[in-house]
Each structure stands twice: as C-alpha cells, then as structure tokens.
Amino acid sequence: MRKLRIRKKVRKTHRYLGLFIGLQFIMWTVSGLYFSWTNLDEIHGDHLRKSVKSMAFENLVSPTALDSTLKIESIALREINNEPYYWINKSQLYNAKTGAAKMGVSKQEALDIAANNMIATLKVSGIEKVETVDTHHEYREKLLPAYVVSYEGEESVKAYVSVTDGAFQTVRHRDWRWFDFLWMMHTMDYEGRDDINNWLLRVFSVLGLFTVLSGFALWFISSPTLRKIKKTR
C-alpha cells in the first residue's frame, strides 16, 4: 500500500512537471536542432559579403597635427569614398589628407560603403537612417545612428553602416533572424537574448532535471522487470 502511494505521488509529480515545462522542453529541442544543423558563417551573413582589400594611402597628415587641443586616446583609419579618414577617440572623423573634420557620412557614402562590402548580385531596394533601437532590434548594442541598406529578395537582407564613423557594421537576413529568435527561446532571456545566467533559465533547468529524475524514479518503481528480479532474490 505504501509503495502504491509513493508510485502515485511520483507519477503525479512527473505529470505536472511535464505539463508545466513541456513547451520549454520542445523549444530547447527545436532550437538545439536548428543550431546543430546550421552553418554559423551563413548565419553571420558571410556568404553575402565579399572580401575587402585595404587600400594603401600616401601623404597622410600626422594625427598630432589635426588639432593642438586634441588629446588622442584611440585612433583608427577609415576609408570613405576612396578617401582616408582618422577615427579619433571613437567620436570624430578627420580627413587623413587635409585634416578637416567630417561630421558623419551621407546616404550616398553609406550606399558606396555597403556596395564595397556586399556581393554584387544584391540589388538595393532602399536606405534609411535609424537613430534608436530597442533591446529586441536586430541591430541592438551597436553604434548609432546608422544607415540600414535594404536589398531585394526573399531573404530580406539588410546591411548596417555607422553614420558617425562610416564603418560597415553588420549584415542581417532571414536565417539570422530565425537563429536570433530561437536563441532567445533557448536562453529564455526575453529582454536582451544573451544573458544565460538569468533566473528563469535557472529555475526551468532545475525543474527539467527534476522532471527527468522523476521519470527515472517512476520507471524504477513501476517496472515489472525490476519487480521480477526482486522476487527472484
């Protein structure tokens, strides 16, 4: 009688745990299958980009000659419309030949930058500027404002170019968006997607472990084979 009560409690626990986290189990399985069967290079959009060769520039002015009051903490060289620019302190562009300051890039310059990075078979369908994005946007956590260049086709390809420094930022397309959605469901981080230490994931992981263990326990106490073995002993 006591064993029967234990068996019922374990079965009930297993049933309700399965109902409670069953959908999340499905999402973990589906997303895991998708991740294992996809090529990360394609998800990153590498097949949509072409290799870019850095241009060699001559007769560049010294960064120290740009502005006597400028305290240089970081510097990078950018190419915009075949012209070299210094990106100083992650905040300001200066023409590396004339020393003149440049206040961001234009739409046409952004289109040229995108064309220099994207494969030639893609056809532009539009361009717009984005000033702000939320935590669910495909361009989250990157430099703003930015131009988003859209391309024709079922993949809904978009290229992002920083307005401030003219750097080609990233590529987004249909498969990346599916990956991003499934990654959110996998990590259960519904705010920013990338926090794998959130409490919701921890709780469901523990409940998932209890569900599996209760299933093993139910098999152990209900198995006719095990009962026969015990009787023979």
What does this molecule look like?
This protein is of the alpha+beta class. It is 42% helix and 18% strand. The chain has helices at 2-37, 40-43, 107-117, 174-187, 199-222, 224-232; strands at residues 75-80, 83-88, 92-95, 101-102, 124-130, 146-151, 158-162, 168-172. The strands form 2 sheets. A 4-stranded antiparallel beta sheet has the order 1-2-3-4. α1 packs antiparallel against α4 (174-187) and α1 packs across α5 (199-222). The longest helix has 36 residues, at 2-37. It is elongated. The model has no long low-confidence stretch (mean pLDDT 87).
Features:
four-stranded antiparallel sheet; 6 helices; 233 residues; elongated; 18% strand; 8 strands; alpha+beta
Average pLDDT score: 87
Helix content: 40-55%
How many strands appear in the DSSP assignment? 8
Task: Tell me, briefly, the overall form.
Answer: elongated
Oligomer: single chain
Distance between the termini: 21 Å
What is the ordering of alpha helices and beta strands? HHEEEEHEEEEHHH
Largest sheet, order of strands side by side?
Answer: 1-2-3-4
Strand content: 15-25%
Structural class: alpha+beta
In a nutshell, what does this entry contain?
The chain is α+β, with helices and mostly antiparallel strands and 233 residues long.
Topology:
Blueprint: H1 2-37, H2 40-43, E1 75-80, E2 83-88, E3 92-95, E4 101-102, H3 107-117, E5 124-130, E6 146-151, E7 158-162, E8 168-172, H4 174-187, H5 199-222, H6 224-232
Antiparallel strand pairs: 1-2, 2-3, 3-4, 5-6, 6-7, 7-8
Helix pairs in contact: 1-4, 1-5
